[in-house]
Specification:
Blueprint lengths: L1 H4 L9 H12 L2 H13 L3 H29 L3 H12 L7 H32 L8 H12 L2 H20 L2 H30 L2 H9 L8 H15 L5 H6 L8 H28 L12 H12 L3 H34 L4 H22 L13 H28 L2 H8 L3 H33 L1
Helix pairs in contact: 2-9, 2-13, 2-15, 3-11, 3-13, 4-5, 4-10, 4-11, 4-13, 4-17, 4-19, 5-6, 6-8, 6-15, 6-16, 6-17, 7-14, 8-9, 8-15, 8-16, 9-13, 9-15, 10-13, 11-17, 11-19, 14-15, 15-16, 16-17, 17-19
This protein binds 4-fluoro-L-phenylalanine.
The site of 4-fluoro-L-phenylalanine (PFF) has 16 residues, from α2, α3, α6, α11 and α15.
Length: 457
């Protein structure tokens, strides 16, 4: 059975397609919408330093471990882990890695599609000139009226999920691979154009000062946890997406080099997005870097609405955000779709529709958190905030920790050597980070963050 299932989904055309697919998964709302507002709410500099450190010493090693498990198993995350557990006769509790991942993926997809829906709505608002000449008050009221309309939000969430289904239905080569080969280069060109625009028209120096002046004194346990959660979220690790993509990776590609390339591109896009957003914030009076989830949707239209060529640049920006969200969301779908195909004998189309339906229903809870359930709290969080906190700051780090321990201590060294196959110095650094640094760092930050959160509310 396992042999039959292996490789049934096909594989990427080349190592380069894998790099683009993984970068497509990593670069998304997490970089352009979430990173700037979370960095802004946590005071900038010090948060950014911890975030980059988490990417390097936790994110990269865990991501390599995930790709390794996927490429060894060549199936959905659940079945790849299943095979390893069955063949190595180890405790079945390790199966939780695959399950945790698939559940976290579904939960993330549910709210991710809602925020991506905002971006789609903003393409229309920008392009039709509705945001021309807005100031702080009118931009906020446009944003508030977008959030106050549950039917509109559900409509855009549905449109976004529809686009995702179309791509994932096409399969690995013709659907995911093709879409990514077209989307990723467009994304990099647009972000580069926006960056050049900001260099000449806005306060880039101030933005750099905000993002890179490291003052560690104002870091709390909670912000450490948020920096680590953001590192997991942005690299798409701790939930199987990268494991699923690793299953389609050519055998001769180097896992180490590939993962470092993806982490580099991902961090670059986050930092450049941060510079773009904050340079606009700092050159427009009345805007605050601490504005929260509305940062991108309130502040940028003010800037775009008041600059020459802003209509075009603004429309382009929201197209870019939507493309980035799209290439990430398809990787959130893939683990569950691949599993349903293997285990339930569903075709790709039906598996897709089923997963999207679950995400769509759950997503309605997030839609309501911005209007009719605005005041209904779970542990002081709205439904949307609760899902975001639960997945990024709890589920992804815990699954990441389990993956580090599994590959670092439990998996057979023979398999690791076959898959990693690079010079011993790099391998020993990776193993050291995976065995000692990542588990300690995740545990300490996790405990500090949770204590801080629940002692301060
Ligand atoms: N990495 C994506 C982003 O930064 O927007 C979000 C994401 C995609 C998280 C896929 C997790 C995942 F598996």
């Amino acid at each position: 059975m396992a042999l039959q299932k292996k490789g049934m989904h096909g594989s990427w055309a080349s190592r380069w397609t894998f790099i683009m697919a993984a970068t497509g998964s990593a670069v998304g709302l997490g970089n352009m919408w979430k990173f700037p507002y979370v960095a802004g709410s946590n005071g900038g500099g010090a948060f950014v330093l911890i975030y980059l450190l988490c990417i390097l010493i936790i994110g990269v090693p865990v991501m390599m471990a995930e790709v390794l498990i996927g490429r060894q198993g060549r199936q959905s995350p659940i079945n790849s882990v299943n095979d390893l557990v069955a063949n190595s006769h180890i405790n079945k509790a390790w199966l939780s890695i695959g399950w945790f991942g698939v559940i976290a993926g579904l939960l993330i997809l549910s709210f991710y599609a809602v925020i991506a829906g905002w971006a789609l709505k903003y393409i229309v608002l920008m392009a039709t000139g509705d945001l021309q000449g807005v100031d702080g008050t009118s931009a906020s009221s446009v944003f508030e009226s977008v959030l106050a309309d549950p039917i509109g939000l559900i409509f855009w969430q549905t449109v976004f999920l529809f686009f995702c289904v179309i791509v994932v239905m096409g399969g690995v080569k013709k659907g995911l691979g093709l879409a990514i080969e077209i989307l990723m280069p467009i994304l990099f060109v647009v972000i580069f154009l926006l960056f050049v625009f900001c260099l000449f028209n806005t306060n880039v120096l101030e933005a750099m000062k905000f993002l890179f002046s490291f003052d560690l004194s104002n870091l709390s346990g909670r912000s450490l946890l948020e920096a680590m959660g953001q590192a997991f979220f942005t690299l798409s690790i701790g939930m199987g997406a990268i494991m699923a993509y690793g299953a389609y990776m050519p055998q001769d590609a180097s896992i180490g080099k590939t993962v470092l390339t993806v982490a580099f591109f991902d961090s670059l896009v986050a930092i450049i997005s941060g510079i773009i957003i904050f340079s606009i914030v700092f050159s427009t009076s009345g805007l605050e870097p601490t504005a929260g989830p509305g940062l991108m949707f309130i502040s940028l239209p003010i800037a775009f609405g008041n600059m020459t060529g802003g209509l075009l640049v603004g429309t382009l920006f929201f197209v870019l955000v939507s493309i980035a969200a799209w290439s990430s969301a398809i990787s959130l779908l893939e683990p569950s779709v691949a599993w349903l195909m293997e285990e339930k004998n569903l075709g790709r189309v039906n598996a897709n529709l089923l997963v999207v339906l679950v995400a769509w229903i759950l997503g309605i809870g997030s839609v309501f958190s911005f209007n009719i359930w605005q005041n209904s709290m779970i542990f002081n969080f709205t439904f949307f905030d609760f899902l975001d906190f639960l997945t990024s700051n709890i589920m992804l780090p815990i699954t990441g920790l389990l993956i580090a321990i599994f590959v670092g201590y439990v998996m057979s060294p023979k398999i690791i050597n076959e898959q990693i196959g690079f010079k011993s110095s790099i391998k020993s650094i990776w193993m050291f980070l995976l065995k000692f640094i990542a588990p300690c760092a995740v545990s300490v930050v996790f405990v500090a963050g949770i204590l801080d959160k629940f002692s301060n509310g």
